[in-house]
Design brief:
Its EC number is 1.6.5.2. The chain has 215 residues and is α/β, with parallel strands linked by helices. It is built from 6 helices and 7 strands; from the N terminus they run βαβαβαβββααβα. Helix 1 packs across helix 6.
């Protein structure tokens, strides 16, 4: 069965991102996927690292390395389990909320998500084979986000984090000018998320079966 991990990266409970994530997850489940959800408005947000050892997996030959907190270990298990990761978050100050940044800092660890090679400048991408989708909401227009912010938040997440660790981003969805969007517009966004949930579930099945992607 296809395994999809939904990560809601806002500390505000019952926000628009929750409704979008729920629509996506329900449709993906109906399409046959097994879906888990991490909701950073309700689930533990890993604390900001205060030592270098908290940025890497504990090593057996380094007794001074900090052990993984139980919540962080559980999140690593979720990422290991998943075939496909979906990030939902609001754009704040041109990037994503600190809650999601803390999650990334403590979960996408050296030795888990990537590994530096002993010599040279190359590294191993330890999450290769997984795909991801990014869904972001913002009050600014999409044109402003592209021209002024240079799509900073989604580019950083897709390239500096996911690509670096071997995860291929298959799509970015941007919902702009949220505060001006009426109920009809928001209902359309929910329907769009349902379509993407169904599509991603089917695409994961095809990929695992070795079937080429549809044109």
């Amino acid at each position: 069965m296809t395994r999809i991990l939904v990560i809601i990266g806002t500390p505000i409970a019952d926000a628009l991102n929750h409704a979008l994530a729920e629509s996506y997850a329900a449709a993906a489940t109906t399409a046959g996927a097994d879906v888990r959800t991490i909701d950073l408005a309700r689930d533990p947000v890993p604390g900001t690292p205060t030592t270098r050892s908290e940025l890497r997996m504990p090593r057996p030959d380094h007794p001074d390395d900090a052990p993984l907190p139980p919540a962080v270990a559980a999140y690593l298990d979720d990422v290991t389990w998943a075939d496909h990761l979906v990030f939902f978050y609001p754009q704040w100050w041109g990037t994503y909320p600190a809650a999601l940044k803390s999650f990334i800092d403590r979960v996408f660890l050296s030795g888990f998500a990537f590994r530096y090679r002993p010599t040279g400048r190359l590294w191993d991408r330890l999450l290769t084979g997984r795909t991801a989708r990014i869904v972001m909401t913002m009050d600014s227009p999409r044109l402003w986000n592209r021209l002024v912010y240079r799509n900073a938040s989604e580019t950083s997440l897709a390239r500096a984090t996911l690509w670096y660790c071997g995860v291929r981003t298959v799509g970015v969805t941007r919902f702009g000018e949220v505060r001006h969007a009426g109920p009809g517009v928001r209902e359309g966004w929910l329907r769009q998320m349902a379509r993407l949930g169904s599509r991603d579930a089917a695409a994961c099945v095809r990929r695992k079966a070795g079937v080429p992607a549809l044109a």
